[in-house]
């Protein structure tokens, strides 16, 4: 079964995360497939807008924690993993010279949140829930979350919901500017397709130049932040808190960081 589904309707390329049995959590193969799909979007002149969504009831729960657990004790570098996977993925979205619209349903968490925040527009179902997630497994935010989340909702709110790991409701996400629009779940795909079709009729080259302007004005240090997230993640991956957090997650328990 392909982990990424792509389809083109006129000038809109729709990319769907297709691992619903795992809440569309990312493993290495899925990340690579998404990178390939975004490369196709960049190279195909017939594609003038992109929609990114998830199959099933969840956009993405983030990194597959079982893959993370397998990496423990094997000397796998979290820094190198980010350098090969999420960091170039986030940069692909920001550097793609075409509008990228995220259609967000269900849970949007961890690296999945970073990918959603990197998109140009976010349309969410009214029952969507956003969770930072990283600190619960003894890690710092990566995938650009440490920059993109405060940029969108402010440092105070970003700090609160990162440290508490409480979910952000779709309604709060709209009020705080994290998403552009809320719609009922049953019309999410149709609404995203309609907006993307409208964007595809626009001045695509000018849209691309606008993205470059926004990147320079608001996210000029994105690559530096992604690299620093990797440094911090490398450090945290070797700590007891990460071991405790991963074990608790897999056992569906609350982590005890006091022990």
Question: What is the topological layout?
Answer:
Elements: E1 4-9, E2 12-17, H1 28-43, E3 49-54, H2 65-71, H3 78-84, H4 86-95, E4 100-104, E5 107-109, H5 110-118, E6 121-125, E7 129-131, H6 145-153, H7 155-164, E8 168-169, H8 170-175, E9 181-183, H9 188-200, H10 204-218, H11 222-237, H12 240-250
Parallel strand pairs: 2-3, 3-4, 4-6, 5-7, 6-9
Antiparallel strand pairs: 1-2, 7-8
Number of domains: 1
Order of helices and strands: EEHEHHHEEHEEHHEHEHHHH
Mean pLDDT: 95
- Tell me the overall shape: globular
- How far apart lie the N and C ends? 42 Å
Biggest sheet record: 6 strands, mixed
Structural class, by secondary structure, is alpha/beta
CATH architecture classification: Alpha-Beta Complex
Percentage of β-strand residues: 15-25%
CATH class: Alpha Beta
Overall strand count? 9
**Computed CA radius of gyration, to the nearest angstrom:** 18 Å
- The low-pLDDT segments are none
State the CATH topology. Answer: 2-enoyl-CoA Hydratase, Chain A, domain 1
